Structure formats: structure tokens, C-alpha cells
Amino acid sequence: MRSKVVSIDVAARIVRNGDVVIMMGGMEFTPMALLREIVRADIKELNTVGVVGGAMNLDFLVGAGVTSTVETCDLNFQPFARVGPNYLRFQKAGRVKMKDNT
Predict the structure, then answer these.
(1) What is the pLDDT of residue 79?
(2) For tag attachment on the chain, is the N or C end more exposed, with fewer CB atoms within 10 Å?
């Protein structure tokens, strides 16, 4: 069977404009190296979904301006902040749409 393991830059190139990106919530499950590569690839209009909440992962993509929709039950930086700072800023400015999946 052929190996499906690829480098981070190859994995990031799989993601296209407008794709749905689903991640597990929590600070300890944040694939920051992959997320930085997605931002570097200049991907736009992602629909991001946080399963069991979101944290730095979703907030980073919002702050980088690559996501247009966030679907999650919660987006926080517990115990550091009640709400992700980028998300809060973009939400107040009307730059990102939130879908609640509680």
C-alpha cells in the first residue's frame, strides 16, 4: 500500500479557496505549522469548523483573513481569554460569519 504521508507544504496545497476545514478544539491540538502554510499559500474564504469548540487554531485563521465562516460551539483561549481576540475583533467588524453548532 502506498504511503499517504506528505510534507506540510504539500498538505497545505490540498486546501483550496472556499474549502471546509475541520479541526478539533483546544490549545493542545492546534496544527500551527500546517495552518501557517495554508496562510502562506494565500488561501481565502475558508469555512472553518471547530469540533468540540475552537481555540488558537480557528482564531489564527480568522486573524490571518483566510476564513469567512466559523462554525463552532465556542472559540476561547481558556484559561487566558474568554473569547479569541482575532475572532472577537473580526466579529464586531462584521468581517466573519459565525454559525453556532452547539
Answers:
(1) 80
(2) N
Q: Give the dihedral sign, CA 6/10/12/13.
A: negative
Looking at the DSSP assignment, which residues form a beta bridge with residue 21? 48
Q: What does the longest C-alpha to C-alpha distance in the chain come to?
A: 49
Q: What residue has cell string 478539533?
A: 24
- pTM listed for this prediction: 0.89
Determine the straight-line distance between the first and last CA of the chain, rounded to whole angstroms.
39
Range 17-35 average pLDDT: 88
Find, among 47, 49, 39, 42, the residue nearest to 74 by Cα: 49
DSSP H helices in 1-102: 8-14, 32-40, 56-63, 85-92
- pLDDT (tens digit per residue) in 36-82: 999 999 999 999 999 888 888 999 999 999 999 999 988 888 888 88
